[in-house]
Design a protein that fits this description.
Layout (H helix, E strand, L loop, with lengths): L2 H11 L1 H16 L5 H24 L6 H16 L4 H5 L2 H18 L4 H45 L3 E4 L2 E9 L2 H17 L4 E11 L2 H16 L3 E5 L3 H9 L8 E3 L2 H11 L1
Parallel strand pairs: 2-3, 3-4, 4-5
Antiparallel strand pairs: 1-2
Helix pairs in contact: 1-3, 2-3, 2-6, 4-7, 6-7, 8-9, 9-10
Length: about 270
């Protein structure tokens, strides 16, 4: 029998046994504890891979196992979902590559495969491993990006809360550093909420603002103008001297906006006007 065909037959006929041996050898080299479920899944994938590799060697086929690609993607997603690092993924590949090459060399030499075919087999194995690690890392990055976006979306929602305090009156508490993005979010998220909740008076509370500059003060003034066009009265509270100074230095005239020291004072004033 052609020596290369003999290697292909052994890979296909003993795929599960070889896969189990390979996984055990890789775990020994890594030297870390791997969850049982991951080990079992790896054996299943490697079994499929060796069957596929045997067919690939027999037919000189250079396509890639769909099962290996899917497993690689799931591996990346799983690592990202549990808060892992890409370095944790990369850490496993050198010993995996070593075990694969050693096993293929052992099978090839035992069946008398010539040098050219041995080189082709090793190239095929390395190519599959490279594709696998690429798919794993790509999936990891996609999953991580999605998680970051979800956290960002939640943060954006929490950073622009419109809190009803009584009928037709709500408070927009501003906390942290006010920048261009925060001002944009207020326009995009808070103002539609004010409109949908039929708020007639919005108290914009600055007491939690750490820093503000003239440009951002102008953005806040623009928000006031948009609210006015919607028929919503806006009141500013918690404007510390340094914040008011930044607004004045930027040429922003807050004289058209009612201001109070605290939210309570603003609400009391509203109730007196009712």
């Amino acid at each position: 029998m052609n020596p290369t065909y003999a290697v292909a037959d052994e890979l296909q006929q003993n795929a599960q046994t070889i896969a189990t041996e390979m996984v055990d050898s890789i775990i020994d080299l890594i030297g870390v504890e791997i969850p049982k479920q991951e080990i079992e899944q790896a054996i299943i994938v490697y079994t499929e891979y060796f069957i596929f590799l045997g067919e690939s060697i027999r037919n000189k086929d250079e396509t890639t196992s769909k099962g290996l690609l899917e497993w690689s993607k799931q591996n990346g997603v799983r690592e990202a979902a549990k808060g892992g690092r890409v370095s944790d993924i990369l850490f496993r590949y050198p010993p995996t590559r070593m075990v694969f090459i050693d096993k293929m060399a052992e099978l090839s030499l035992r069946h008398g495969v010539n040098t050219d075919d041995l080189i082709w087999i090793n190239k095929r194995v390395n190519n599959m491993l490279d594709i696998s690690i690429n798919e794993t890392v790509f999936a990891f990055e996609r999953q991580t990006s999605n998680q970051i976006k979800e956290v960002q979306d939640e943060r954006d929602i929490l950073s622009t809360p419109v809190v009803p305090v009584q009928e037709n009156v709500a408070v927009l508490p501003l906390v942290g550093k006010m920048d261009h993005d925060r001002a944009r979010l207020i326009l995009e998220r808070a103002i539609p909420l004010v409109s949908s909740q039929k708020i007639q008076c919005l108290i914009i509370d600055f007491s939690g603002i750490v820093m503000i500059d003239a440009t951002i003060a102008k953005h806040i003034f623009d928000i006031h103008n948009v609210l006015r066009l919607l028929g919503v009265n806006s009141i500013a509270t918690g404007m510390r001297p340094e914040l008011a100074q930044a607004a004045v230095e930027g040429g922003v005239d807050f004289s058209s906006i009612k201001t109070f020291a605290t939210v309570k004072q603003a609400i009391d004033s509203i109730n007196l006007d009712l």
